[in-house]
Amino acid sequence: MQNQKIKNNLAKPFLKWAGGKTQLIPAIEAYLPVDLTNRSDLTYVEPFIGSGAVFFWFIQKFNIKKAVINDINAELISVYQIIKSVPQELILFLKELERNYNDLRAETQKRSFFMDIRSKFNLKTDNKVENAGYFIFLNRTCFNGLYRVNSKNFFNVPFGKYVKPRISDPKNILAISELLQNVTILNGDYTETLKHASENSFFYFDPPYKPISKTASFNAYAKHDFGDKEQERLAKFTELLTEKNHRWLLSNSDPKNIDPAAVFFDELYDKPSNTICRIKARRMINATAAKRGEINEILIMNY
């Protein structure tokens, strides 16, 4: 993958994503194991890929043997697979969506167009390129780029009121497609990624964050919420990785932002092999501008 990181230095996330990790990359880089990339047989594994900010940065910066990405969200993974296999078809479809949407002048017309696409996306068709295009369109035109589904697994984020959003980005899609050619793309439970690990593997976990207030819940990006029981199951999985001598780093919200006495993650990852660090991040997805600002997030690692 060494040549790819040179060719594809423009590749970046193709989605806006609540909790995207672009702003945390400097901190993540600072906390990587110092000897991580000294060997040429490294396997990078990201079990909760989301928009892939850390993934795109990592595989273009370091010389790695292979990469494995996964997500439980089948619609999201289908987009990655379409970009990998038929990027030109997706680009043409996105260009048409962008042209048709941006030709509309009135907000009511744009809202109506958005709702029509949302209905088509929820109904699904046999055309995977169209479904992938609808996914990206909705991400670019819905409120704050959120991905949220209801109990019926229907996308239900409202209209975002963007006047002229960028929906089609051909250069980036082609760059991503090239990067993905040697990447294993999985759709399932994160534990399945262990089957694809090698002796020298590094796992980065960006699970749905634990809500830090009663009104801040953005973890319903699949039919079933990722609650405390799931956070505990993930912690058990990291213990298994440690037993198998795999190194890992995990990011999550810090409950201490709301309650200084909250020790959920401190207790959950209280193992001799683990280190917990608190870093500064900016909250950008609150509907109220005044409530956006700098908060703590946590990084947990087994080295």
Précis, in short:
By secondary structure, the chain is of the alpha/beta class. It has helices at residues 2-7, 25-30, 53-61, 74-85, 87-102, 107-123, 128-141, 170-180, 228-243, 264-268; strands at 43-46, 66-71, 183-187, 201-205, 247-253, 275-283, 293-301.
Keywords:
alpha/beta; 10 helices; Adenine-specific Methyltransferase, domain 2; 15% strand; 2 domains; seven-stranded mixed sheet; 303 residues; disordered N terminus; Rossmann fold
Structural description of this entry:
This protein has 303 residues and is α/β, with parallel strands linked by helices. It has two domains: 185 residues, Rossmann fold (3-Layer(aba) Sandwich), CATH 3.40.50; 81 residues, Orthogonal Bundle (Adenine-specific Methyltransferase, domain 2), CATH 1.10.1020. Strands 3-2-1-4-5-7-6 form a seven-stranded mixed beta sheet, sandwiched between helices. The longest helix is centred in the middle third of the chain and has 17 residues. The two termini are 26 Å apart.
Mind telling me the C-alpha Rg?
19 Å
**Stretches where pLDDT falls below 50 for ≥5 residues?**
2-8, 285-291
In terms of DSSP E residues, the strand content is 5-15%
CATH architecture tag of the largest domain: 3-Layer(aba) Sandwich
Residues in helices, as a percent range: 25-40%
Class of the largest domain, according to the CATH hierarchy?
Alpha Beta
Structural class: alpha/beta
* Largest beta-sheet details: 7 strands, mixed
Order of helices and strands: HHEHEHHHHHEEHEHEE
CATH homologous superfamily annotation of the largest domain = Vaccinia Virus protein VP39
Counted up, domains total 2
Overall spatial form: globular
Q: Overall mean pLDDT score?
A: 90
By DSSP (H or I, 4+ residues per run), the number of helices equals: 10
Instruction: Quote the distance from N terminus to C terminus.
Output: 26 Å
Q: Give the spatial strand order of the biggest sheet.
A: 3-2-1-4-5-7-6
